[in-house]
Amino acid sequence: MDILFITIAIIMTLIVIYQYQKAQIKKRAKRIDQYVFPNSIHEKLSKAYPHLTDAQIIQVMSGLKEYFHLCNIAGQKMIAMPSQAVDMAWHEFILFTKSYEVFCKNAFGRFLHHTPAEAMNSPTQAQEGIKRAWRISCQRETISPIVPKKLPILFAMDSELSIPDGFTYSLNCKGKGKDNYCATHIGCGGGCSGDSGGSSCSSGSSGCGGGD
């Protein structure tokens, strides 16, 4: 009888924790959507990528919010950055140290770090981070992670905007070049990797990976 009671108590506790976490993710997602980035980030992107229109720069800024949504959903787990353009926007946002700190506290309940990929604890961290980014992106956009019919927003961004030195992903992996990553390999099991070497987010003193 005591064992049954304890088992039920544990199950109920786990349900309460799950519901609380789900509510927190939803609340923080709303804060991410409502946030207004500093105008100078738009200006910096315009100088870095003069070929982009204002509408396309807004698209990059929307991509940064999408990346933050992935981080929000992933919680303490690392999420790699699939886009160079969005990564630059993130870099610029971090320079607004106070605003960025407040944003992180409201959007994630913690500070979101950004560090070079080579500073990560192990070579597999970036691989796991990009796979996690792929899975969550596909889930958010109702795309099959194993047999995708299109690329998620963050994975299509650099190619669509013709970003110099951007991360380019392909659904057709035949004849894939060294600068063109196979998207369908990201969603498969162990041994497959579509790692772009992009930046990633995490919490705590270990920071996160990045391709600066």
Q: How would you characterize the overall build of this protein?
A:
By secondary structure, the chain is mostly helical. The protein has one domain (35-201). It is 55% helix and 5% strand. It has helices at residues 2-34, 39-48, 54-74, 84-94, 97-108, 124-140, 153-160, 183-186; strands at 79-80, 168-170, 180-182, 200-201. The protein has a two-stranded antiparallel sheet with strand order 1-4. It has a two-stranded parallel ribbon with strand order 2-3. Helix 1 packs antiparallel against helix 5 (97-108). The longest helix is centred in the N-terminal third of the chain and has 33 residues, at 2-34. The radius of gyration is 18 Å and the shape is globular. It starts with a helix and ends in an 11-residue tail after the last strand. Mean pLDDT is 80; it is low at 189-197 and 203-212.
What's this, in brief?
The protein has helices spanning 2-34, 39-48, 54-74, 84-94, 97-108, 124-140, 153-160, 183-186, and strands spanning 79-80, 168-170, 180-182, 200-201. It has 212 residues and is mainly alpha-helical.
Question: Key terms for this structure?
Answer:
disordered C terminus, mainly alpha, 212 residues, globular, two-stranded antiparallel ribbon, two-stranded parallel ribbon
